UniProtKB/TrEMBL annotation:
Protein name per Swiss-Prot or TrEMBL: Cytochrome P450
Keywords of the record: Heme, Iron, Metal-binding, Monooxygenase, Oxidoreductase
Keyword Heme set for record: yes
UniProt key word Ribonucleoprotein: no
Organism field: Actinophytocola gossypii
InterPro entries, A to Z: Cyt_P450, Cyt_P450_B, Cyt_P450_CS, Cyt_P450_sf
Gene3D superfamilies: Cytochrome P450 (1.10.630.10)
Top-level division of the source organism's lineage: Bacteria
Similarity comment: family membership: Belongs to the cytochrome P450 family.
Amino acid sequence: MTEAAVFNPVADGFAANPYPHYRELRDTDPVQEHPLGFWFLSHYDDVTRLLRAGLSVEDRNLADGPVRAQYEALGADRAPLVASMLDRDPPDHTRLRSLVAKVFTPRAIAALEPMVTDLVDASLDRIADGGPVDLVDELAFPLPFAVISTMLGTPPTDQTRLRELTGTLVRSLEVVTDPDVIRAITEAEIALAEMTRDIVEWKRANPADDLLTALIAAEQDGDRLSDDELIAQVLLLYVAGHETTVNLIANGVVALLANPEQFDLLRTRPDLAPNAVEELLRYDSPVQQTRRITTAPLTIRDRDIPAGSFIIACLGSANHDERFWGPTADSLDLERQNAHRHLSFGAGPHHCLGAALARLEGRLAIGRLVSRFPNLALDGDVRWNGRLNLRGASSVPIRG
């Protein structure tokens, strides 16, 4: 009998390629009770079921144990984070999401295409003029950051500082046991909340036709948002609006360069760009995990999961589950017919609100990059950011 694998994100090679390890988990213990006190799901069907089950995301519902202790260790100053719709159950989640969703309509996102195209082309001009460059620094980071900043209507911001702080903050989405990391997360959150508060105050004095003005107006006129809720939604939009798309662009280009036949296919078939983005989202998910908390006992594959349990649904593993995707699950196939059924944007009530925006940015950035630089190649080693959840390439040296 094969010994069950244990989820181990510090295993050799995991940072660069976690998918062989995920396969071990699917094959030996797909509904795993981890020694650190959480549950870990790795099959496509189980992950899909969990995400659509309407379970809680609020840490107050956690039973006593290591995970609850981690959240308590983050301190009482977490109000600006836990007030975001990402961390709220209905009715608060419904109320907050409906407010922000008014700006993320298909028509509103489609209207952004000229702006995103101009931003992409400006980045590609810099790449063409600069010789060997880092894709993350020149395109993958500045593009989504500029887009979400424009949508929000924020003043010029210290991008370097914000990038450092958000990189630390997103570690809160992982199970963390290191007290130093927990302390750093808390400090980053406090700093980001203050930066965001300053931005909101600036916008109150400088209203315009933008998302942030709309959020402020809703808070003032309808008494719908508390101060913490307002700060939380803006911070969430900033973080989610650029961190995940950085990974989509960077990981997607790395995948194409590792599969030159697929790179050439996209170059010669630009009409494939929309489906290519879906397949790249599946192949190396920008968000590897999401979590839910049971408020009642739950049974999955004959495993009884108690109420108050913290469950990690592994999107990255589900997206490579050969039981759903077939024998080519680990291969990049830009013509894959069902690529859009990936779980990289989640599913159910918390399905990613910015999915259409990410698809637009990915399609334009990757499609136009491949078209303009047919001889694109790596010019050094890819470095990975070391995160478990928002896993991505932190440096992709390229030459055109």
